[in-house]
Specification:
There is one protein chain. Helix 4 links the parallel strand 3 and strand 4. By secondary structure, the chain is α/β, with parallel strands linked by helices. It is built from 5 helices and 7 strands. The radius of gyration is 16 Å and the shape is globular. The chain has a single domain, classed as Flavodoxin domain (Rossmann fold), CATH 3.40.50. Bound molecules: flavin mononucleotide. Flavin mononucleotide binds next to strand 1 and strand 3.
Amino acid sequence: MHQLEGPLATVRHIRLRDLPPAALLRADASDPQIAEAVAAVEQASGIVIATPIYKAAYSGLLKVFLDLLPQFALAGKIVLPCATGGSLAHVLALDYGLRPVLQSMGARHIVQSQFVLEPHLKIEGDSLSVDDVTGATLLEAIYHFRCALGHAPPHDQLGHPRPERADGTASG
Ligand SMILES: Cc1cc2nc3c(=O)[nH]c(=O)nc-3n(C[C@H](O)[C@H](O)[C@H](O)COP(=O)(O)O)c2cc1C
C-alpha cells in the first residue's frame, strides 16, 4: 500500500470482509460502516480492487459490495484490478468478468489488470508479500495507475509508458 502513497495521494484500505455481513447482503447502505465505505469510494480518484479468484471468477464478496454502490459510482475514476489465483487457466477472469462491470459503473480508465499466482505470494499472519519478479510487475502497474491519475509523468508520451524494471532493464 505504501507504494501508492506520495505527495499527492492519500491511501485508504477497505477490507470488504470486515464489513458487517448482514448489512452487506441486504445492501443496507444506511449501515454506518457500509455508508462510510461507500463514501470512501465516492471520494476516491483512483481505486485498486483486489480479489481472490474463486470458481473461475472474482469473489462474490466483491460483487455484493459493487452491487450496493450507486450505478455510476466509478464515474471519472481510475481503476486497477488485481487478483490472486491458483491457476493461470483463470488469468482472464478479471478482463472477461470484472472489467465489464467496472466499465458499466463508469470507470474512466481501467489499468491493465494484474493476476498473481498463489505460489508467488507469501502470507505471514496479517502481512502479505510477493516475490521479486511479481513485485516488479506490480510496481509497473502502480506506475501506470499513478500516471493515469496524473501523479507521475509518463516516460513515453507517444506510446504506452515503459518504466524501467527494478533491475534497471527496460520493460516490455
Ligand atoms: C473455494 C475456492 C475456489 C477457488 N477457485 C479458483 C479458481 O477457480 N481458479 C483459480 O485460479 N484459483 C482458485 N482458487 C485459489 C484462490 O484464488 C487462491 O487460493 C487465492 O489466493 C485465495 O485467496 P484467499 O486466501 O483470500 O481465499 C480457489 C480457492 C478457493 C478457496
